[in-house]
Structure formats: C-alpha cells, structure tokens
Amino acid sequence: MWQTVVCCLLNYSPMGSKHLFDTTTSYILCRRCGADLADTKHIINHLSPEANIAINQTIFEQKDVAVQVFSNSLGIKFYSISFSNTKCTAINNWQQNFTWYPGYAWKPCICKQCGVHHGWVFEPIESIDFNPNQPSKKGFFVLKLAFLLNKKFADSLIVVPKSYMN
C-alpha cells in the first residue's frame, strides 16, 4: 500500500505545470487523433530555396527551428518544419514535379491511425527506386505545423481530479 502512495506522490505535482521527472525528449502528436508522430530530437533544419519564407523559431521546446512557408500549385500555403524521421506513412508514387527541394522526389505522408495528411517525404531522385516507402539517410520529412501538437502541451490540458487536490 505504501508503495502505491509513494508512487502517486512522486508522480503528482500540485503546481500542475511542472513535472518532477522531466525528460529531455518530447513527442509530437497528430492533432486530430493524438497518435505519436515524431520525437523532437528528429527535428532538422533542411532549408529549401523554394520556401516563401524561412524563420527560426522556438517551437516544441526546441530553439532555432527553421519554420518554412511553402505554397503548392493551387496557391495554398503551409507552415512546415522538417524531420529526419517520423512515424508518418508515405503513400502513392514518388513525384518529381512541383518539388520544393530541387533534386528530390516527394510523396505525401499520412497519420497511420486516422489518415490525415501531415506532410511529405522527400528522397534524392537517384535513390527513389531503392526506398519505395521510407526515406534513406539522405531523405527527410516535411510536416505541416497546423496538424501537429506537442505532447507536453496536450498533457497540460488534462484536468487533475478533485480527489487528488485534497
């Protein structure tokens, strides 16, 4: 019984916003269904000459993250960040037209759980035949910020039951 009480006391913070056992990594979730999409340690700054704007921001508790704004062929703008690895699923065939990264082919990528379109997978054109579904070490992901949610932020929205407050 005392182990349960001690365990609860160690994991409960009356301040609500500060965790006693803070880890150095944070996860990024699908904003629609809450599925794990990426680890913040996989955020990279892969700049594109085709970006409308590129701004360094502190985002997902990471400093100097390059947030790039891209426009597609329909004129729709996307605020995006790049990752070396995600759990996003690549779909369809590699496309070489309308690429934001010259020398790279791309595919859309979706959430494995709910199917929402999160962004794109980019792969150097010379290696697209070798990696049909996942990028090689030279490949990367570009995900739209509008569909991402920081797990720590999501956890902060959870209300502590009144019985814990006594």
TrEMBL record:
Which intervals hold domain CULT?
A: 25-152
Q: Which InterPro entries match?
A: CULT
Domain of life where this protein originates: Eukaryota
Its protein name is Protein cereblon homolog
